[in-house]
Amino acid sequence: MKSDGSSVDKTPGAGRPRDPRIDAAILRATADLLVEIGYSNLTMAAVAERAGTTKTALYRRWSSKAELVHEAAFPAAPSAIDTPPGSFAADIRAMLAATRDVFTSPVVRAALPGLIADMVADADLNVRVMNRFTEVFVAVRNRVAEAVRRGEVRADVDPDRLVEVIGGATLLRMLLQPGAQLGDDWVDQTTAIVVHGVVT
């Protein structure tokens, strides 16, 4: 049964932060429903009911279903490359493995097709969603610049194209074989192909 909005999500006074417990409940409900019923069947009303709050509470936090789903599927936007600098091949492998791990989670698998369609149809939404990945683009640019200075990577390599290749390869494999697992052998083989295309 849906709880009364006033008891679960009191409207904060001016300048007061929103209740993180409500945020967490909404995101958890969204993730669970995505796996259970899929993106196309997900509604803000269903999320509100599962989270024990109101649609008003949802729309105070997220302006659309797509933005809510994006945050539920990608709760923490990647911001750095975990490998220590010094080997661009290791950087590429780490990026591919991290992308594989994120894209193959049940929630992301359920969210991506519908989310991509909504982002293609709405340019403003596309910009708002992609802005959450700004830090990872900066991290890749920095690693490419370091590798160029070491003489390991060609100076004409575009970091943004590199991100597209890594994300695109992972996404296409998922679309071609939606039930298949992307193992370490796929990561290693794809790493070798990408590295071959950028090294000096």
TrEMBL record:
<dbReference type="InterPro" id="IPR009057">
    <property type="entry name" value="Homeodomain-like_sf"/>
</dbReference>
<feature type="domain" description="HTH tetR-type">
    <location>
        <begin position="20"/>
        <end position="80"/>
    </location>
</feature>
<dbReference type="Pfam" id="PF16859">
    <property type="entry name" value="TetR_C_11"/>
</dbReference>
<keyword id="KW-0238">DNA-binding</keyword>
<protein>
    <submittedName>
        <fullName>DNA-binding transcriptional regulator, AcrR family</fullName>
    </submittedName>
</protein>
<dbReference type="InterPro" id="IPR001647">
    <property type="entry name" value="HTH_TetR"/>
</dbReference>
<keyword id="KW-0805">Transcription regulation</keyword>
<dbReference type="GO" id="GO:0000976">
    <property type="term" value="F:transcription cis-regulatory region binding"/>
</dbReference>
<dbReference type="InterPro" id="IPR050109">
    <property type="entry name" value="HTH-type_TetR-like_transc_reg"/>
</dbReference>
<dbReference type="GO" id="GO:0003700">
    <property type="term" value="F:DNA-binding transcription factor activity"/>
</dbReference>
<dbReference type="InterPro" id="IPR036271">
    <property type="entry name" value="Tet_transcr_reg_TetR-rel_C_sf"/>
</dbReference>
<dbReference type="Pfam" id="PF00440">
    <property type="entry name" value="TetR_N"/>
</dbReference>
<feature type="region of interest" description="Disordered">
    <location>
        <begin position="1"/>
        <end position="21"/>
    </location>
</feature>
<dbReference type="InterPro" id="IPR011075">
    <property type="entry name" value="TetR_C"/>
</dbReference>
<feature type="DNA-binding region" description="H-T-H motif">
    <location>
        <begin position="43"/>
        <end position="62"/>
    </location>
</feature>
<keyword id="KW-0804">Transcription</keyword>
